[in-house]
Amino acid sequence: MQWHGENGTVPTTTTHNAHSSCHLPCRTATNMKEPVNDAQLRRSFKNKTLQNSLFASYVLALILLVSSHRALYSPANKEDDKLLSVPFPRRQAAKGGLPPVPDVVKQKLDNGGHNDRNNDASGGAASTPSFPLPSDAVPSESVSPEIILQPTYGSHRPRQNAVFAFAEGYDLNVYVTFIESLKNTGYTGDVVLSVSYIEGMKSGVKDYLEWYSQQQGDSLRVISYALTWECYKKSGVRILPTNKEGRGSTTNHGFSDCKMHGLYSDGKDNNLSRAEDPREARPVATARYELYWIWSKQYHENSSILIIDARDAYFQSNPFNFRSSHDVGHVHLGDVHLQMNQQSYEECTLDLFEENYEAVNIAKSQFNSRWIKTAYGQQTLKKLSLKPVICSGSTMGTQTAIELYSVAMVAQFDKTKCKQVGCDQGFHNYLFYEGGLEQYLASHSCTINVHKQGDGTVNNLAAMRNSPLRSQGVLSNGKTRNGAIDDTIIVFNHDKSTPSPVLHQFDRDNELKGIIRKRTSEMVTQWKLSRT
């Protein structure tokens, strides 16, 4: 079919000057050829349109590439990420306690890379992570494995609060400092300890633990698990009780990779036979979280639990009676505070405690940097480099929160296989900042509170060791807030009037360590006299 003009004839050629344009279809004196049919015209139009589209796409892609490059390396953008790239308490928003997060903040968070592995393809909203139970690693053909580990001394009281600690291989003074200082605060709940196998206990330790396990009524009770670890040097050589390294501590005081058999049943013999440890040998500082998970399941959901290092902790007041006036109603994330609903003490909460942010952050600490890089890689370390260090040696919460937290910590070893001593602190920080711990807890109606150093129940002191604590105003002069003299108080929180309930890492300061050692000597004497 020929193309026709308005009168049905082939149009005559017109001559255009240099400024005229020729719109399709058009024929000039220089291109006058055979009449062009409809198919040819459509093909020509389509080809030119495609060429124009490809060129426009190329230009647009180039613009976007340059823009993203400038945004990535812009100092202003880095500063914004520092302030805004933080997890938000989404549980309150879901319950109506907080307004929805503004879109601009959501976009900033997404661009900052937080939980990008959990974003769905439909819109970037963070999905809820899930972690397998520690017992799921036990191979079983039919019956699900059950917890069969039993305490060596004492028994749990499910409706009491509890303090958990790994305390393997220590001498009597460490146990006395830990337990007697806690008892002197008026605490009457449980203390649950992982300790050396009985034959390896230091002098006086067995009698001390047995005595406290037999306490009745409304008094502090110690529940001890005397475990036999199967431990190896980094070279792979087994550490035996007869080895030099194994005398009193087959775990080599935490520096060996170990297995612990018999935590679970193996599904055979009516589900009563002991299962071999399904995990490869790992540092006890990592393996202990499996114990914490097992212990947490012995308590009622309304119980509160403190996980704390035993060797360097001293109690000034009952940790379960303390609520910081500064941190109630807030979540602290570095230099950003986000308003939260007021929480009743019975609600499911997890409390985490920072190191001193002015002294150290993740990038400044070669240890914390190495743990995160080893477990999760350089890119994750880069994201977390300016974040405050959160101490894994002090964690507190209600029973459900501690149970969930322990599950997530065990899962991090299964995921990373990080065997460096201290990787548990890398797990701890990654879970909060990047690993979805907040969303995981929120899916079980739990929240997280992160306390600045010197504001919460536990005062982590190690990062302040570059100068004496007294010169920093941390050590008290013995006066309470009403001006009375009270020599039992050593350290106040940053408000200079509230005694820190728990002093963690007290041995980093020589003066403080000397004060507590003197008190320990007095407490040992008092305990021995009480037995005569």
Question: What report would you give on this structure?
Answer:
Strand 10 and strand 11 form a beta hairpin. With 532 residues, the protein is α/β, with parallel strands linked by helices. The model is unreliable at 1-36, 68-125 and 326-345 (pLDDT under 50). The termini are far apart. The strands form four sheets. The chain has a seven-stranded mixed β-sheet. It has 13 helices and 16 strands. 39% of the residues are buried. The radius of gyration is 33 Å and the shape is globular.
Order of helices and strands: HHHHEHEHEEEEEHEEEEEHHEHHHEEEH
Query: If strands are numbered along the chain, what order do they take across the biggest sheet?
Result: 3-2-1-8-13-12-14
Distance between the termini: 120 Å
* Poorly predicted spans: 1-36, 68-125, 326-345
Shape: globular
What structural class do you assign from the helix and strand content?
alpha/beta
Task: State Rg.
Answer: 33 Å
Helix content: 25-40%
Strand content: 5-15%
Overall residue-averaged pLDDT value: 77
> What characterizes the major β-sheet?
7 strands, mixed
Number of helices: 13
Counted beta strands: 16
List the helices and strands and how they pair.
Elements: H1 38-72, H2 75-84, H3 90-95, H4 103-111, E1 162-166, H5 172-183, E2 190-195, H6 205-213, E3 221-226, E4 230-232, E5 238-239, E6 257-259, E7 282-283, H7 284-296, E8 304-308, E9 313-315, E10 330-333, E11 336-339, E12 349-354, H8 366-376, H9 378-384, E13 390-398, H10 399-416, H11 423-433, H12 437-442, E14 447-451, E15 458-460, E16 502-504, H13 510-531
Parallel strand pairs: 1-2, 1-8, 2-3, 12-14, 15-16
Antiparallel strand pairs: 4-5, 4-6, 6-7, 8-13, 9-16, 10-11, 12-13
Helix pairs in contact: 5-13, 7-10, 8-9, 8-11, 10-11
